[in-house]
Amino acid sequence: MFLIARCAIECRESALARIRFIRDGFFTGIVLGVLASWLGISTAQGQEPVPVKVGAYEYGVVYFFDDGKPSGMVPSLIRLLNDLQDEYAFELVETSSRRRYRSVTNGEVDLVLLESPKWEWEQLDVLFSDPIVQEQDLYLTLSGRGDAEMLFSDVTSYQMLCVLGFHYGFADFNADPEYLRGNFDVMLGYNEKEVLDGLLAGEAPIGVVSAGFLALEFGANPDVRDQVTIASQPDATYDLVSVLSDNSAISLEQFNQLIAELHDEGEVERLWQQLHRGVSR
Q: H/E element holding 101?
């Protein structure tokens, strides 16, 4: 009888030990799981965003200076892209219209906003994003000229004011200064402001500027609207994309996805229309 009781006690203690083992293991697993999850979240939250260097140069409303501060579509897009996610940190890097190719290929920037694939990028090892916005270049002459229609019907027969490093439809998008001067009667300025000022000063009968720049100028100087006549046909209409280096910090697929999200929200079109207010495209 004593042996039977002792055996029962030992069996009960063994069962209780197994229950405690299972219980302790269960709660330990929960604790470890929670700890691992917390550590994973902490690691993810503590990870620094990947820098993405975005090249930009003075061009229309794409990039310009307002009271000495960078303004335009590129700074706005950078702000929107950074607000949209925290995996990448998009940063503005200034370049120039002629230096931008080297900036991309030598890794000075990861991408350039906003560009046309037709602007001598085809031979370089770069990638093109989906279209982001569309722009036009416009022919201008002074208001009151009786020969405006004749000028616009054959622009290459007359002297034109253009921007050094820019690509124009009348020249089949060849921006080489020697080619332009050798085949057309052009005067090359540093930016579109110089083109407009030269036109208003009578330096040449025709000037070529982007629709965005003209809208910006009309907003800042309303009197200019009455001083110029715009040709009914543009020099060129073109899609603007992002040009990414082949080793960009952000992949083409990821960049396209972010831009698509901004398009879905309507922010890209809203900003672009706002920057072109007063000039129909």
A: helix 100-105
User: Which residues, listed in sequence order, are joined to residue 66 by a DSSP beta bridge?
Assistant: 69
**Which residue from 27, 39, 32, 263 is spatially nearest to 134, judged by alpha carbons?**
263
Token look-up 């040449």 returns 204
Cβ–Cβ < 8 Å for 224, 142? no
Superfamily, domain 136-237: Periplasmic binding protein-like II (3.40.190.10)
Cα separation, 155 vs 117, whole angstroms: 24
> Bridge-partner residues for 210, per DSSP?
137
Report residue 168 CA to chain centroid gap.
Answer: 21
Q: Express each pLDDT in 22-38 by its tens digit.
A: 445 444 444 344 334 44
**What's the CA gap between 209 and 219, in Å, rounded?**
15
- 72 touches 64 (CB < 8 A): yes
**Tens digit of pLDDT for each residue in 126-177?**
999 999 999 999 999 999 888 999 999 999 999 999 999 899 999 999 999 9
